[in-house]
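# nightly structure sweep
# worker-07 picked up a monomer target from the shared queue
# config: single-sequence mode, recycle default, output format = structure tokens
# input follows
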Amino acid sequence: MRLAVLSGLLLWSGSMLILSRLRWFARRLLTERLRPYTASAPPSGPPGMLSVESFRELVGPMARATGERLSRLFGVSEELSARLERIHSPYDVVAFRLRQFGAAVVALLAGAILLLATRPPVVLALVVLLGAPLLVFLVLEQHVAAKSAARQRRLFLELPVISEQLAMLLSAGYSLGAALNRIATRGEGACAEDLRVVTGRIRQGLTEVQALREWAHRARVDALDRLVPVLALNSEAADLGRLVSEEARSIRSDVQREVVETMERRSQSVWIPVTLATLVPGVILLAIPFGQALRLFTSG
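# output follows
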């Protein structure tokens, strides 16, 4: 009887959540229907008690807080909002955490079904039940961290070319806003994509310097942190093109230095198998007379 009542409650809750998305069942307010066509409509009313929005508002803060604690526990110090904004993700923090915990619940259910089918020892069952959802959670977290690091790497490698283009355009008589707009519309890559966001923020009312500082804060690349203060001298320096050109040479030197360091590390790593290949036969050849000497010493 209890199982039947619980199943009925779950069926009723799920049916209400699904029906709340249907137009004929849950009619939206007029202001909410007009919202996509105007920016002056007042905020919409609170969501229904059994709607997907209410479920998001109920579970979202708990999922966000728990996800932040787990990520910090495993050594992830940077905020998720900064990483999602850097990679231009379509999800916000709450949506991403809900997707994470949804995938973890699916992994938990799959592990439970597998355990019911195989019936392993208790210790192995506990490891699977605890490890499967945690592994899925960490895989999604690592995926975002890897995409964020790759984005920062692309920005660092593209900055010398972007800086040189800015220097040429500024020396040719372009203003800072016109130069940024030209590179954003005609360029490709991570820097050009971010510059399109910068120009969009300028059209929203920010100054060029404020939009560039937002970009630097979002990207967190050292070379960009040095370039933005130079570009901030737009209204003060008469030879801004020369200053940007010098900064571009400095950034290119940093890139070349890092490439040389990578080549040196790879050249050194080549000697590891060579060293092992020479040491192993040498140790064997030394072990034979050493063992023979020990045998003669013990026999005497």
